Amino acid sequence: MIQDILPQRMRNMFERKEPCDTDRLMCFSADKILLRCNAMITYPLYGDLRRWCAQKNEADPQMIYLFSVGSAAYFLAKLPVEYTAALRQDGYEFVRMFDIRRLAPREEVFAAATAWHLYAWYRDNRFCGRCGRMLVHGESERMLRCMDCGNIVFPKIAPAVIVGVTDGDKLLMTKYAGREYKRYALIAGFTEIGETAEETVQREVMEEVGIRVKNIRYYKSQPWGFDMNLLMGFFCETDGEPEIHLDERELSVAEWVKAGDIPDDTEGLSLTREMMSVFKSNFS
Ligand SMILES: [Zn+2]
Fold it and tell me: Which terminal residue of the chain, N or C, has fewer Cβ atoms less than 10 Å from its own Cβ?
């Protein structure tokens, strides 16, 4: 899966860090990230920016430390327009977040997804939602604080479930209605306030396909920064009739697929596809 980057490891612990020359700059514009990709992803380096700023007699732009992978630290940076133009001359381009999951290596794809999640949180939380004043960055942990009313804003992560509903050697597979992602998926949905993850599983399966489920077992979780989620995978079995009543607002397709007919996972990124593969391997 996207987070499985051994022997590398992402260190998300909050630190107050100054950038060094080999650290990476994560720069976003709308739904795109700045990178260069020949065979492998390269992000702009702090050292190049520092030298450019010195040459132009400009102060370094503001940067926020995000996380580290191996010996490299990743910083969120708002780059000067002129410097971005120079990088583009050098082969860098803004690539849609939707498209980067196909790139390599995996640790840099995971870094992009995680940086995007943090970027979107900082971008959307500049002001206090309670009193409207500007928020300031926490000194000792990842949080934003309102100095006026005391409101504290922690990173926002939306918990959601992915559900492998099984009936003997068949798995319930779906396709979303009205989304860019066109391949097979599994039943999925967000946890409501006041609900356990297991209750989310029961509710989402009932809402999307009208089936009661039992024997709900936790499988694994996955951080999915592209959509600011923490995904929790569960398997369960039908409880009674396996007849599908499709919610056409959510799904365009829901069908029982025999284990042998489940397509192979060529990406190895998503929890959804790993769950499909795990189910398939139980019957082969
Ligand atoms: Zn406030």
Answer: C
Q: In Å, what is the CA distance from 236 to each residue of 162, 171, 205, 210, 219?
A: 11, 10, 10, 14, 10
| Ion ligand 1, residue ranges at CB < 5 A | 128, 130-131, 133, 146, 148-149, 151
CATH of 10-124, one of 3.90.79, 3.40.50, 1.10.3470, 1.20.58: 3.90.79
**What span, in angstroms and rounded, lies between the C-alpha atoms of 196 and 179?**
27
- CB 24, CB 42: distance < 8 Å: no
Domain extents in the chain: 10-124, 126-156, 158-281
Buried (b) or exposed (e) across 185-220, using 16+ Cβ within 10 A?
bbbbbebeeeeeebebbbebbeebbebebeebeebe
Mean pLDDT score of the chain, rounded to an integer? 95
> How far is the centre of ligand 1, averaged over its atoms, from the C-alpha of 124 (Å)?
15
CA of 135 to the centre of ligand 1 (A): 8
Distance between Cα 118 and ligand 1 center (Å): 21
For ligand 1, the distance from its centroid to the CA atom of residue 66, given in whole angstroms, is 24
Residue 251 confidence (pLDDT) above 90: no
Domain 158-281, classified CATH 1.20.1080.10, yes or no: no
CA of 143 to the centre of ligand 1 (A): 14
The predicted-structure confidence for 83-122, as pLDDT tens digits, reads as follows 999 999 999 999 999 999 889 999 999 999 999 999 999 9
d(CA 223, CA 67): 14
Summarised one tens digit per residue, pLDDT across range 47-82 is: 999 999 999 999 989 999 999 999 999 999 999 999
